[in-house]
Amino acid sequence: MMRMIRKFAATKGRILFSPGEPCPGYIVLSSGTIRVTLSGSSGREVVLYRVRPGEVCLQTFACLVEGRTYGAEGIAETDLDGEMIPASQFQSRLEEDRAFREQVLGSVATRFGEYQQLIEDVALTAFDARLARVLLRLADEAGMVEATHAALAAETASGRAYVTRRLTEFARRGLVEQRNSGGIAILQSATLQRIATDER
Fold first, then answer.
1. Whole-angstrom distance, CA of residue 187 vs CA of residue 196
2. What is the pLDDT of residues 70-111, one digit of tens each?
3. Among the four 5, 50, 57, 190, which has the fewest Cβ within 10 Å?
4. Where are the domains of the chain?
5. Any idea what DSSP says for residue 53?
6. What topology is assigned to 6-123 in CATH?
7. Residue-averaged pLDDT of the chain
């Protein structure tokens, strides 16, 4: 069978898939990041995972293997470049290309481990520890976090009001500073690291 692999590109902010949509194919990223989120009827959003080069999107994998539609939303967090394997050829590629199959299945196993960690974080980890981990993960080299309180709520599987209260407490303790520009400056990364490792 002749393989048809199409060039894929998307600009930052583009919605790649939404709940209820069929999957057009399997994206193999060469650069960029896709953020996959789930929204409830209340409007609250939770970040499930991110897809980077060499990683698999579980939503896409399930759609292609089981013929289901998407159950979450995928958005280009940065500009994206890569290739797309059409849905009609994904199964045959898995069967015929051993290296591709091992890469995909290995990435699926890793992603399930991340899902387990997400569940453990939400169910078993104190909120301050979750918030500290997210702040440290999102901080740039200068220690700045460019994220709204709503975005941090999605990252921590919580509500925006609660994030605001805990950030205010972090600021009171001198751990962070909320800038008028909307960013959050990390002032005491070592203390945040200790908080990030604390359990409930």
1. 15
2. 999 999 999 999 999 999 899 999 999 999 999 999 988 888
3. 190
4. 6-123, 126-196
5. T
6. Jelly Rolls (2.60.120)
7. 90
